[in-house]
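Recap quiz, item 2
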Amino acid sequence: MAVAVAPPEAEASPAASARGGNAASTAHSGDDTPSSSGISYRQYRDESDLAAVMDLIDNDLSEPYSIFTYRYFLASWPQLCFLAHDNSSGQPCGVVVCKMDVHRGKQLRGYLAMLVVDKRFRGKGMGSALARMAIKAMIEGGAEEVALEAEVTNTGALALYRALGFIRDKRLHRYYLSGNDAFRLKLQLPLTPLAFERRKKEKDAILGFPEEMEPADSAVAEGAAHEAEIA
Ligand SMILES: CC(C)(COP(=O)(O)OP(=O)(O)OC[C@H]1O[C@@H](n2cnc3c(N)ncnc32)[C@H](O)[C@@H]1OP(=O)(O)O)[C@@H](O)C(=O)NCCC(=O)NCCS
C-alpha cells in the first residue's frame, strides 16, 4: 500500500528545537493529533498499545526482545514512547521507545532504545518526527544528553540520527547477536532550568553545603571557627 505522507515540518535538531518550536510539540499526552499529512502521532497510553508496539518492532529490528523488556520500558517511561497511526486505516505504522535515568550518578541521560517505521511509510519524515518527539519529552524531563546504539551497517538510521545532531561516541565490537558492531551515538542537549536545578542540588548534596552558601564562604567560616577554638 502506497500512502502519501508529507514530511513533518523541517527542524534542524531537537537541541535547537528545545529553544523554539518543534513538530514534536503537536503530540499531546494520550491525545490523537490528526495532521494534514495523514499520520497521527500520540503518546503511548497503556497495555492496550503493547501489542501494536511489539508487532512493529518485532517485524523490523534484528534483536529479539522479550515481553519483559517491552514492559520494562513502557511501564516505567510511557511518556517517552510515541506511536504513529495511519489515519486512513487507523493502523499503527511507527513507534519509538525510550527510557531516561541517571547515568553513572551524574547526568540525567535519555536513551532511545527502539525506533521503527513500517516499511510502507518510510522516507517521509516519520522516523525523525518520532525521534524528535521522544527527545523533546526527554528535554522536558530534564535530560542533559541522549544516547543510543545503531548497527554500523544501518546507513539509513545513522543518517537520520546525524541529521538530528547525534555524534559518534564509540564503536562497540560485536554488540549485536548477529556479531555486528554498533556505534554509540550521543546528542548533547541544552541545559534547561530543570536540568540546571537538578545538577546544582546534586553538587550541593555531594559537597554538603547549604544551597545559599558558596563552598568558598563555607570553608572560610569553618576556618574562622577553627582558629577561634585554637585561640
Ligand atoms: C531508520 C528508520 C526508522 C527511518 O525511518 P523513516 O521514516 O524512513 O526516516 P525519515 O523519513 O524520517 O528520514 C529522515 C532522514 O534519515 C535519513 N534516512 C532515512 N532512511 C534512509 C535510508 N534508507 N538511506 C539513507 N538515508 C536515510 C535521511 O537523511 C532522511 O532525510 P531525507 O529524507 O531528508 O534525506 C526506518 O528505516 C526503519 O524503521 N528501519 C528499521 C528499524 C531501524 O533500523 N531502526 C533504527 C534502529 S537504531
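The chain has two domains: 14-190, 191-231.
The domain at 14-190 is CATH 3.40.630.30 (Aminopeptidase).
End of item.
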